[in-house]
Amino acid sequence: MTEQQPDESKPERVIRKIKRCLALSKSSNENEAATAMRQAQALMREYRLTEVDVRLSDVGEVESEKYRVNRRPTWDRQLSAIVAKAFGVRPLDVKKWSKTAGRVVARACFVGVTPAPQIAMYAYEALLTKLTQSRREYVSQVREGRRRSSYSPETAGNHFALAWVSAVHGKIHDLVPRGEEDAALPNGTTGRDLVAVEAQDKALVEQYLAGKEIGKARKAPEIELDLDAQIAGLLAGQRVNINPGLAAGGEQPLHLTQA
Fold first, then answer.
1. 134-163 per-residue burial string, b: 16 or more CB within 10 A, e: under 16
2. What is residue 56's DSSP assignment?
3. What is the C-alpha separation between 172 and 118, in angstroms, rounded?
4. Residue 186: what are its φ and ψ, rounded to 5°?
5. Which of 27, 21, 5, 33 is CA-nearest to residue 237?
6. Is 88 a residue whose pLDDT tops 90?
7. Closest by alpha carbon to 121, among 198, 182, 44?
8. Do 14 and 45 contact (CB within 8 A), yes or no?
9. Residue 244: phi, psi to the nearest 5?
10. Which residues lie closer than 8 Å to 155 by C-beta, 6 or more apart?
11. Helix axes 32-50, 153-175, angle to 10 degrees
């Protein structure tokens, strides 16, 4: 007798399918996490344009498994902000008690229409892993004298990370569809349909958050950045190659290019 597979809701199937497409982003190849973003965006747009009857109960939030015992650094918050914009979700910075850390910790959180928050978090954590690794390597090089800086190694590393995020932001922004000629949209739909769905999602998210207490984000102070660290960070971010020529259906493997 054949064992019957448990039923899955459509959002769960979409999440599973997209995560399968994103699985390569956990390899050692620095390009894959950012490249996978285009694939996930296409699948999510297809899902939302065929599931226009969305209710407030379909809005949810996802918190990152990664946390900071202190305030999240600016470059971390900026990374979550650009990922949130790409996937049409609202980024938040939450502070809660952690049994693991034994204290209050700060985490990234995404709020949006399912499955957008789950996929945005998956992409954010994959990119954060790449960025953290690159920053750590740069800090080590400054500490060993292989990179020059008039700042401390940790501060220079922060400047490096800000530039890295800036470089990747431009690449992600270029992949977000504009107008009615987007090949990733399902047949029979247009850019206007996508705008209408995005507006509906935004309104639902605002309604979901209306009863929650959300503090205002503090404005980051203006600082003079280390030019050497900026250049190194921009170059590292630019080496994250994002290939826009990916299949919308997500059944084909990711096609990656090496910098």
1. bbeebbebbeeeebebebebebbbbbbbbb
2. G
3. 18
4. -60, 155
5. 33
6. no
7. 44
8. no
9. -75, -10
10. 226
11. 40
pLDDT digit string (tens) for 19-57? 666 665 455 555 665 566 667 777 777 777 676 667 777
- 3-state class (DSSP) for residue 163: helix
Residue labelled with tokens 């910790």: 105
What is residue 94's predicted lDDT score, i.e. its pLDDT?
92
The runs of H, that is alpha helices, within the chain are 10-22, 32-50, 74-87, 116-143, 153-175, 191-209, 227-238
CA 163/CA 196 separation, integer angstroms: 34
Please report, as a single letter, which amino acid is at residue 63: E
DSSP category for residue 68: B
Closest CA to 39 of 238, 241, 251, 240: 251
Global pTM reads: 0.72
Length of the chain counted residue by residue:
259
Report how far residue 21's alpha carbon sits from residue 43's, in angstroms, rounded to the nearest whole number. Answer: 10
d(CA 199, CA 202): 5
Which 3 state secondary structure label does DSSP give 105? strand
Spatial distance between the Cα atoms of 248 and 186, rounded to a whole number of angstroms: 9
Following DSSP, what letter does each residue of 21-54 receive, concatenated? Answer: HHGGGGSS-TTHHHHHHHHHHHHHHHHHHH----
Question: CA–CA separation, 239 vs 163, rounded Å?
Answer: 12
Handedness of CA 247, 248, 251, 254 (dihedral sign): positive
> What type of residue sits at position 97?
W
Residue 88 per-residue DSSP state:
T
